[in-house]
Specification:
Blueprint lengths: L4 E6 L4 H16 L9 E5 L5 H13 L9 H10 E5 L5 H11 L3 E6 L6 H11 L7 E5 L6 H12 L7 E4 L6 H11 L13 E9 L8 H26 L8 H14 L8 H4 E7 L1 E3 L2 E3 L17 E6 L11 E6 L6 E8 L18 E7 L3 E9 L9 E9 H4 L8 H11 L8 H21 L4 E4 L6 H8 L11
Parallel strand pairs: 1-2, 1-4, 2-3, 4-5, 5-6, 7-12, 8-17
Antiparallel strand pairs: 7-13, 8-11, 9-10, 11-12, 13-14, 14-15, 15-16
Helix pairs in contact: 1-2, 1-12, 4-5, 6-13, 8-9, 8-13, 9-13
The structure holds 6-O-phosphono-beta-D-glucopyranose.
Length: 486
């Protein structure tokens, strides 16, 4: 059933709203997934006049990869839902005015603003007395820079809302391929029995980007790759790969299982940070055949700094299923190409019935390609056809491309899925505060460790696969990073 609610985008003239939220809302409208009376209220400072606002909205919607084309009839009917509301979101009077103009529907507030003003915005809503049990609040990272600052932000939200009303976005959870991880694991009988330390040697998770930090340097410089990517996106992927079967397909059951994984992560601190993590920072180089500057020379850079633009971690999950199975994580800016993959590397067969050089035997591998070229690859050993006396073996990939398999289905954007779920009141794909607290606790240990041991980022050339020490992290364990499979 379609829920009737008004969606208020606070910071409605900002970058995120134009780039992601309006295109997603238009798609939902076009697919008839919004209730008839749902209004999209763009709460801004009134810097943009009506015409400019609408033409910007259209421009960004048309250039969205997920929308592809805008048709006139649905655009016109979409605009009928859209209202611009100019005011100050930290003022209780303006909140009251919004409420009386918007009508009696339930409200979803998407705070597309810096977290530093979450507190006065929530306070204004509270003071205006416009929050009911059905009001929902959507917030997005950066939610703090440590456990302590996360708690501060959270407390300001809890002053007006309770957990069941707060939707904390990690846009990775809205990606189709990330949601498919659960389907893959729990809807196929042959994975579950093998999904265990007895059969899996290790797991690799790579989220590589070719873009640099330029354009948002000052934010990034405060954050770095660990806070920007690992604390949220990569840890969420670890949880989905490692979690146990949830009791039911319900938001809290799934989030309970994810939380257990976060709690089982072996702490990394000053005593082991050097052995288990690698920090890197890109220097100038070439990406996609274009010369690019180093991190400290980006146009908006404030000079040299010790912020990491790359991080590799050997994470360990201390529970019965995963004891002794390392999860190697790496993410970085200005790497060779943009891709995200999960590799499940199985152990070698114990009894080798064919007498071949062990060097020719590659063990089975499951590759989950999250982006681009989304799909799944299963690497299996096969006999090379032929009459030669010695049997030759070759590792061959069974390749499932989602684009080919689901030709007739459009893949929605992460924000479409997430906004729709907020209107439906489904919190499954949103992070609960205890999950985030656990993630911050783990990450804080590393940050303190780096500080205490003065572990500086190692330089790597833009366009490469990261610093040499990241290769060494696996080589010392007798393993190697898998190259891009796409
Ligand atoms: C964001 C980070 O959360 O995710 C960015 O702040 C990063 O630094 C982005 O570029 C990557 O998202 P995606 O969907 O392009 O993989």
């Amino acid at each position: 059933m379609l829920k009737t609610c008004n969606i208020v985008i606070v910071g409605g003239e900002g970058d995120l709203a134009f780039r992601k939220l309006y295109p997603a809302l238009y798609s939902l409208h076009r697919e008839n997934l919004l209730a008839d009376c749902t209004k999209v209220i763009c709460f801004g400072r009134g810097k943009l006049g009506v015409d400019e606002f609408k033409s910007r909205m259209r421009e960004w919607t048309e250039s969205s990869d997920y929308v592809q084309s805008v048709d006139e009839a649905s655009w016109a009917s979409f605009l009928e839902r859209v209202d611009q509301f100019n005011g100050d979101a930290t003022s209780a009077d303006d909140m009251r005015r919004l409420h009386s103009e918007a009508g009696p529907e339930d409200m979803v507030f998407f705070l597309s603003t810096p977290p530093s003003i979450f507190a006065p915005i929530c306070a204004a809503m509270g003071e205006a007395n416009i929050v009911t049990e059905a009001t929902r609040l959507v917030v997005e990272k950066p939610l703090g820079e440590s456990l302590e600052s996360f708690d501060e932000i959270n407390d300001t939200l809890f002053a007006t809302f309770d957990e069941s009303q707060i939707y904390r976005i990690d846009h990775y959870l809205g990606k189709e391929t990330v949601q498919n991880l659960l389907a893959l694991r729990f809807a196929n009988i042959f994975f579950e029995p093998l999904w265990h330390r007895n059969f899996i040697d290790h797991v690799q998770i790579t989220v590589a980007e070719s873009v640099g930090a330029g354009g948002r340097w000052s934010y990034y410089n405060e954050s770095g790759a660990l806070r920007d990517m690992v604390q949220n996106h990569l840890l969420q992927l670890v949880c989905l790969v490692a979690m146990e079967f949830p009791a039911r397909n319900k938001a809290d059951d799934i989030r309970d299982e994810k939380l257990k994984i976060i709690r089982c992560l072996k702490p990394i601190d000053a005593s082991n940070v050097h052995k288990l993590t690698v920090r890197g920072q890109y220097t100038s180089g070439s990406v996609d055949n274009a010369l690019v500057p180093g991190y400290g020379e980006e146009e908006d850079a404030a000079g040299q700094s010790d912020t990491e633009t790359f991080v590799a971690i050997k994470a360990q999950i201390e529970n019965n299923r995963w004891e002794g199975v390392p999860f190697y994580l790496r993410t970085g800016k200005r790497m060779t190409r943009r891709y995200s993959e999960i590799v499940i590397q199985f152990k070698p067969v114990v009894f080798k019935f064919i007498d071949v050089n062990p060097g020719n035997i590659n063990s089975n591998r499951l590759v989950i390609r999250l982006q681009p070229n989304e799909g799944i690859e299963m690497h299996l050993m096969n006999k090379v056809p032929g009459l030669s006396e010695e049997i030759g073996l070759q590792n061959v990939g069974l390749n499932l491309s989602f684009e080919e398999a689901f030709e007739e289905h459009r893949s929605p954007s992460a924000y479409e899925r997430l906004l729709l779920d907020v209107t439906r009141g489904d919190q499954t794909l949103f992070m609960r505060s205890d999950e985030l607290r656990g993630a911050w606790r783990w990450v804080d240990g590393m940050i303190d460790g780096w500080k205490t041991t003065r572990q500086k980022p190692q330089k790597y050339m833009a366009g490469s696969s990261g610093p040499d020490d990241a290769l060494a992290l696996l080589i010392q364990d007798g393993r190697k990073w898998q190259d891009y499979h796409g």
